[in-house]
Design brief:
single chain, 526 residues, alpha/beta, Rossmann fold, 4 domains, six-stranded mixed β-sheet, four-stranded parallel β-sheet, 47% helix, elongated
Length: 526
């Protein structure tokens, strides 16, 4: 049976193309060998279950390993202490081999609730005896702890774990405990009053830091593609393709697998990409990104729900995307912690940046979609869209010319403050209906700031780069022309575009063509 790229559930080496996890497993085992308790909290679909499944197998040669998933326990299991002990004991019986007879009998009594006296205290006494009698040290792994993080009984369970860990020098205890989920259980909120008020509580403040990078590097992706290439011999440039996929995804596991899956199963064999050889190319990767951005998947749905639940997070992301104002990365800031925990942002040189290019496009589309019905620019783009496509190609110069005309008609008398808040958004609103369904765009994060942003357009396999900036005088503009010329070299392009918002009353609006070295630049001024 041929392997496939997997985006649903746990990946298995015999069935799926995967990155090599050996290095990560070795690092995690080092933490286990040191007797650490730790949490592995990562965003949705970040490969937690895959690596935990591999870890449980990896540890078996040295430890008795129990890998539980709290999603398999019903909500009723967390309603009371006794129901939790029963469900937990039943799971241990199902998952564990070679239990001592007396421990197995005790857990069975808890599972059946036959004696009516089970409690967390009696459960942990049984676990302590098990740790003492076991031939090998025991590692407990619990996945999807989010399923229980709002329940009092789970908090009490964590408190018991903490107490046993602190006394591990005197009493038998687990070698290591690993809890995994999206939310960091170190900051679990505990109900302490019947009226529902909450306060911070840290029954898991014994947890060691888990800093192992679970995202995929360009080399990781290349290794997976080499495995694929052995099967299909496409002749792809593995360094180029893996580098492009990494640049677009920043190694987010679901997105990496998603792009590869599109290239292998959806793009190859189409009219434009006749076979796998033509699909695994620069043009094919751009098409895969466009398709992935357009998905309505559970990952994006979860992200949008978080924006609605956390208004401050929404504001921060909006600022990052549209104004370009740098936001310092502060690990102790609550909304910053939420943004990292949910996978929206990452720390890059002590500055918060959106996690990857694909998330940026998804978020841009979401924010822009909120204004479709009321935006004059979007309406103008819809009305004029047919004139911008000539022979199947996007005429970017015509797009700029029409935007200049529309902007000058609607907002030509505004000052610079107006631009900093909405100018970029208006251009994207104008552009969206023109390329919708066929093209895509991304913002080059290396150039995004409050004065300059480079927009990369993808339309039917063709790339165009538009530098969007505020006019700061002729000298500044000439430097921008040089920067754009250099940037075009990165994309191997000979033509580029500039959109300048100039609020000088003596400005000359319009579009002109200039030459910088061997490049042609189309400059638009509004």
């Amino acid at each position: 049976m041929a392997k496939v790229f997997n985006t649903v559930g746990c990946c298995e080496p015999e069935l799926n193309y995967m990155v090599d996890l050996t290095g990560r497993l070795t690092e995690i085992k080092g933490m286990v060998d040191a007797g650490l308790y730790f949490t592995m909290n990562r965003a949705r679909q970040f490969g937690k279950t895959t690596i935990l499944t591999a870890l449980a197998e990896y540890l078996k040669k040295d430890y008795e390993t129990v890998y539980m998933d709290f999603q398999t326990m019903s909500s009723l299991a967390f309603e009371s202490e006794q129901s939790f002990v029963a469900a937990f004991s039943e799971e241990l019986l199902d998952l564990t081999e070679n239990l001592p007879d007396d421990i197995e009998k005790k857990l069975a009594s808890f599972a059946g609730q036959t004696d009516g006296t089970s409690s967390l205290q009696t459960l942990f006494k049984a676990l302590k005896k098990w740790c003492a009698k076991a031939e090998r040290k025991i590692v407990l792994i619990i996945d999807e702890v989010d399923a229980a993080s709002n329940d009092q009984v789970f908090v009490d369970f964590l408190a018991q774990l903490r107490a046993y860990y602190l006394r591990r020098r005197k009493f038998p205890a687990f070698q290591s405990v690993i809890l995994a989920g999206v939310y960091d259980v170190r900051s679990v909120r505990r109900k302490i009053r019947p009226d529902g008020e909450h306060m911070e509580n840290s029954p898991w403040n014994i947890a060691a830091r888990f800093d192992i990078d679970m995202s995929f590097s360009s080399d990781d992706i290349a290794g997976m593609l080499r495995e694929y290439e052995k099967d299909y011999h496409t002749g792809m440039d593995i360094t180029l393709i893996s580098g492009m996929i990494y640049a677009m995804t920043s190694g987010y596991p679901y997105l990496v697998s998603g792009m590869c899956k599109y290239l292998d199963e959806e793009i190859a064999g189409t009219e434009k990409f006749k076979d796998k050889k033509s699909a695994w190319t620069k043009e094919g990767v751009c098409e895969a990104e466009r398709m992935l951005v357009k998905e309505d998947n559970t990952l994006y749905q979860s992200m949008i729900r978080k924006l609605k639940l956390y208004p401050k997070l929404r504001t921060v992301l909006y600022e990052l995307l549209f104004t370009g104002r740098p936001i310092p990365y502060t690990a102790t800031n609550d909304y910053m912690k939420d943004a990292v925990m949910f996978g929206f942002i990452r720390n890059e040189k002590d500055t918060a940046v959106v996690f990857n290019q694909i998330f940026e496009s998804v978020l841009y589309n979401y924010f822009i979609a909120e204004e479709f019905s009321s935006s004059e620019f979007y309406k103008a783009g819809v009305q004029e869209k047919n004139q911008f496509i000539v022979g199947g190609h996007l005429d970017v110069r015509k797009v700029l010319e029409k935007f200049v005309e529309t902007f000058d008609y609607l907002y030509g008398d505004q000052d610079v403050t107006f631009y900093e808040d909405v100018g970029r958004r208006y251009f994207l609103l104008f552009l969206k209906p023109i390329i919708n369904g066929v093209g895509n765009y991304s913002v080059e994060s290396r150039t995004r700031n409050n004065e300059r942003m480079d927009l990369v357009l993808y339309y039917r396999g063709e790339q165009s780069v538009i530098e969007i900036k505020i006019w700061r005088g002729n000298a500044y503009n000439e430097r921008g022309e040089e920067q754009l010329s250099d940037y075009l070299d990165y994309f191997h392009l000979k033509k580029g575009y500039m959109l300048s918002f100039n609020f000088n009353k003596k400005k000359e609006i319009g579009v002109k063509e200039i030459r910088v070295r061997d490049k042609i630049l189309i400059e638009a001024v509004v």
